[in-house]
């Protein structure tokens, strides 16, 4: 049987996959079992920060030889050093390491609840504001935080206590905070709603949310699982919004291709988690931490500037795409709306056929290329996207 047949036979049917068997990779390219080469504009959904990178692979291999794993009952250098890097470069005070975005958010939500329980007593202020159209993960807690009705079926009962505010709706924000006064401990937001169709929050909305959170003694919690790690042109997107979050979650591109999540705490929440209150067997695993250190060592000014230049280049090429009507996004997190008669899924399938991997998010085509994709490769990929015309459908 082919890999595809084996997968469809033996793996739970949770994914709608494209009919491509990926075999190997090199920088911004992947190759399949039929020796076809694709330019990867999806980076494994914002994970392969620097594409398929030789230096990264060497850092991972070296750490695997030295120490692959020990438990969190002991100290390890890669974990300690990377925690220091994260805190020093973000102004956050402490971090908890996990293995995925959902877990980073699970930790964020648990910490918010515990912070409130420590201050006001258990279950007094357990409410959490989240945004409509958000996506925070697939655990029950993070599904409950996710403000999309389609995710609130089949697995109930879900954890209670969430209210959802329409993004960029200032009146709804004020009303929600007023309604939640005295019962709510946090607001959770993605600054660019990735899975929700690359919806960028307006700075005025985010800053108002931050002010209201402060007024109502609520924690300002930012989900940077997708927007973090240089993706939007700064280490974290919140830097572009003039806010100081109390808790930030991240994952995806953090370790550049290995599973790692991180929940970062500001000064109000730095000591909320105490021995035994949370934990993870694999969290901060030496190999993942070494991979993340490699990624963050390369997230320097030149890299972030390169993100902005590539984003500007993509924006300049959008008029060439015969199927596009407009775009949204920040840095190299880009959503392209399709003209009538085209669906994002059709465009993704047509692009794949022509050797370019793109993603979709709701009704948009989504681009999340490697942060350092060479300009000539990016140009080649945009030429391919420009060649998708009605006749080719
Ligand atoms: C903003 C955001 N939060 C959380 C998650 C969940 O991350 P994971 O799939 O690593 O659990 C995602 C995944 O798409 C995400 O985009």
Summarize the structure.
This protein folds into 2 domains: 3-53 and 303-392, Aspartate Aminotransferase, domain 1 (Alpha-Beta Complex); 56-298, Aspartate Aminotransferase, domain 2.
Overall pLDDT score: 97
The CATH architecture of the largest domain is 3-Layer(aba) Sandwich
The number of distinct helices, counting runs of at least 4 residues, comes to 12
Percent in helix: 25-40%
Taken together, the total number of domains comes to 2
Main sheet, how many strands, which sense, barrel? Answer: 7 strands, mixed
- What is the CATH topology of the largest domain? Aspartate Aminotransferase, domain 2
Structural class by helix and strand composition: alpha/beta
Give the strand order of the largest sheet, numbering strands 1, 2, ... along the chain. 4-12-11-10-7-5-6
User: What ligand molecules are bound, each kind once?
Assistant: pyridoxal-5'-phosphate
Q: Write the CATH homologous superfamily of the largest domain.
A: Type I PLP-dependent aspartate aminotransferase-like (Major domain)
CATH class of the largest domain: Alpha Beta
Order of helices and strands: HEEEHHHEHEHEHEEEHEEEHHEEHEEEH
Q: Which of globular, elongated, flat, extended, rod-shaped describes the shape?
A: globular
Strand content: 15-25%
Radius of gyration in whole Å, from Cα? 21 Å
Q: What is the distance, rounded to the nearest whole angstrom, between the alpha carbons of the first and last residues?
A: 30 Å
**In total, how many beta strands?**
17
Uncertain runs with pLDDT below 50, 5 residues or more? none
């Amino acid at each position: 049987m082919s890999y595809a047949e084996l997968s469809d036979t033996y793996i739970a049917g949770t994914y709608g996959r494209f009919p491509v068997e990926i075999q190997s990779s090199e920088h911004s390219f992947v190759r399949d079992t039929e020796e076809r080469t694709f330019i990867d504009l999806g980076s494994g959904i914002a994970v392969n920060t620097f594409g398929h990178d030789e230096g990264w692979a060497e850092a991972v291999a070296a750490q695997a030889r030295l120490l692959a794993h020990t438990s969190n009952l002991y100290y390890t250098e890669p974990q300690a050093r990377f925690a220091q890097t994260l805190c020093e470069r973000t102004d956050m005070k402490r971090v908890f390491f996990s293995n995925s975005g959902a877990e980073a958010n699970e930790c964020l939500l648990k910490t918010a609840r515990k912070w409130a329980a420590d201050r006001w007593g258990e279950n007094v202020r357990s409410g959490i504001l989240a945004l409509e159209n958000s996506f925070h993960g697939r655990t029950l807690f993070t599904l409950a935080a996710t403000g999309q009705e389609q995710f609130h079926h089949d697995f109930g009962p879900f954890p209670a206590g969430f209210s959802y505010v329409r993004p960029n709706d200032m009146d709804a924000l004020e009303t929600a905070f007023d309604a939640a006064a005295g019962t709510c401990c946090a607001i959770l937001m993605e600054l660019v709603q990735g899975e929700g169709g690359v919806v960028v929050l307006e700075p005025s909305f985010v800053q108002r949310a931050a002010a209201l959170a402060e007024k109502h003694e609520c924690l300002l919690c930012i989900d940077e699982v997708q927007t973090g790690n240089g993706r939007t042109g700064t280490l974290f997107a919140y830097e572009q919004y003039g806010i100081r979050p109390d808790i930030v979650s991240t994952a995806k591109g953090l370790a550049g291709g290995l599973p790692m999540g991180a929940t970062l705490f500001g000064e109000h929440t730095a000591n909320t988690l105490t021995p035994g209150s949370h934990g993870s067997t694999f969290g901060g695993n030496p190999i993942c931490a070494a991979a993340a250190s490699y990624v963050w060592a390369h997230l320097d000014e030149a890299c972030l500037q390169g993100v902005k230049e590539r984003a500007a280049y993509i924006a300049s090429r959008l008029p060439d795409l015969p199927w596009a009507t407009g775009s949204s996004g920040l840095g190299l997190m880009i959503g392209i709306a399709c003209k009538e008669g085209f669906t994002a899924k059709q465009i993704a399938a047509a692009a794949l056929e022509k050797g370019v991997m793109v993603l979709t998010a709701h009704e948009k085509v989504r681009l999340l290329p490697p942060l350092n994709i060479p300009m000539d490769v990016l140009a080649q990929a945009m030429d391919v996207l420009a060649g998708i015309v009605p006749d080719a459908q």
